[in-house]
Amino acid sequence: MGREFVDLFDKWATSYDDTVSGHDQQYRDVFDKYDTILTEVTNHAEGNVLEFGVGTGNLSEKLLKAGHHVIGIEPSRAMREAAALKHPSLIIKDGDFLSYPKLEEPIFTIVSTFAFHHLTDEEKGIAIKGFYDLLPPNGKVVFADTAFESEIAKKQIIQEAKDHGYNDLVYDLTTEYYPMVGTLQTLFEENGFYVTFKQMNKFAWLIVAEKE
């Protein structure tokens, strides 16, 4: 994910769990049904799992409990340390969607939550091509992330955040690279995946892509 956001991830490491638990009013709608979203991603995972953007390890925990072998990729040192405290046995490597250490184990599912929007659309396409090359036939990409159905919908949500005085959320929505659902569909299909979308809350979508 965009390395330009690593400082932000470092700052979030100590407060992220409180935020996703609904204790920060600004982000309550973003992370609405957070546990359900993680469960959905976990339920779609198969085989060995590569997780991008481990964060504090919340999805990792569900994947490990489900019996998956998990390799985590996380660019933020503070986030890696937070996740390692929760799960000392979890393999976490320094890296991001575009650059990560060579993997020795075969991977069948690639997962991520609330991280892919830190890439530009061009970078998303490069990353998806890399996923295709990494996965076997019928391998899967299972993401949950913020996306919008249209530019109009995005502008409306930004205006609502402004009206509520949610300045941090407005800053995120206007400086990070939140994609359109249609753009994601095109990027996955152009790179050899069949993809479906399921809206999980006002902001987040479940994205399940299978290598054709």
TrEMBL record:
Q: Which enzyme type, at the first EC level?
A: transferase
Decide whether keyword Isomerase is in the record.
no
Q: GO annotations under biological process?
A: methylation
Single annotated GO MF: methyltransferase activity
Which keywords fit this entry according to its UniProt record? Methyltransferase, S-adenosyl-L-methionine, Transferase
EC number per UniProt: 2.1.1.-
Q: Which residues form the Methyltransferase domain?
A: 49-139
Q: Could you tell me the superkingdom of the organism this chain comes from?
A: Bacteria
Question: InterPro entries from the xrefs?
Answer: Methyltransf_25 (IPR041698), SAM-dependent_MTases_sf (IPR029063), Uncharacterised_MeTfrase_YrrT (IPR023553)
Summarize the protein's role. Could be a S-adenosyl-L-methionine-dependent methyltransferase.
Enumerate the HAMAP family for this protein. Answer: Methyltr_YrrT
What is the protein's name according to its record? Uncharacterized methyltransferase JOC48_002106
